[in-house]
Each structure stands twice: as structure tokens, then as C-alpha cells.
Specification:
single chain; 93 residues; alpha+beta; SH3 type barrels; 7-stranded mixed beta sheet; 2 helices; 7 strands; 15% helix
């Protein structure tokens, strides 16, 4: 398994351009979460704008969770693993 930094993992995720990828991260409550997700999904948006910028203020990345069919936020600080195009990368802290 290849190792990448948090910054490179964020770049890798943003370069997916809407293709499906998988992540493993630690949620705020301490549980580990595996998620299959995509970027750029706009079908389920209700309108309006977020009151804050999750990426700049809290180091979060907004994605669409394919299993729960809803928008979720991934904590980049607690990211453990990213799988893109069949390649898995361990994120080093």
C-alpha cells in the first residue's frame, strides 16, 4: 500500500472529477467510518449556501455518500485511507 500525506490525499480526492472513490476516516465521536463517495453531485441540493467554508475553517471536505444517499463531510485531519481507481493509499499524519 502506498503512503501519501494529507495534502496529497486531498489533491487526489479533488482530482477524481466525479468518479467514485472510497475513504476511511475517524468520525468526531471516535468511530472509524468507511465510505464510498463522489464529488460534484448536485442533484440533491435544496438551495441556499453554507454559513461557513468547511474546507478552510474546519479542514472538512463535502462529499456525496453513495450508501446513505446524502451529503457528508470528511475530516481531512483524521483521514486514514483513500482508494481511487483501484489503488489504495494510506494517509500518513
Amino acid at each position: 500500500m502506498n503512503r501519501i500525506t494529507i495534502e496529497n490525499a486531498e489533491k487526489l480526492i479533488k482530482s477524481t472529477n466525479g468518479t467514485i472513490f472510497a475513504v476511511t476516516f475517524v468520525k468526531k465521536d471516535g468511530t472509524v467510518r468507511d465510505m464510498n463517495c463522489r464529488l460534484g453531485v448536485t442533484k440533491h441540493l435544496k438551495g441556499g449556501e453554507q454559513a461557513f467554508d468547511p474546507n478552510k475553517e474546519y479542514d472538512l471536505l463535502t462529499v456525496f455518500d453513495l450508501q446513505k444517499k446524502g451529503y457528508r463531510m470528511i475530516s481531512l485531519e483524521t483521514l486514514q485511507k483513500v482508494t481511487v481507481n483501484g489503488q489504495t493509499f494510506a494517509v500518513i499524519q
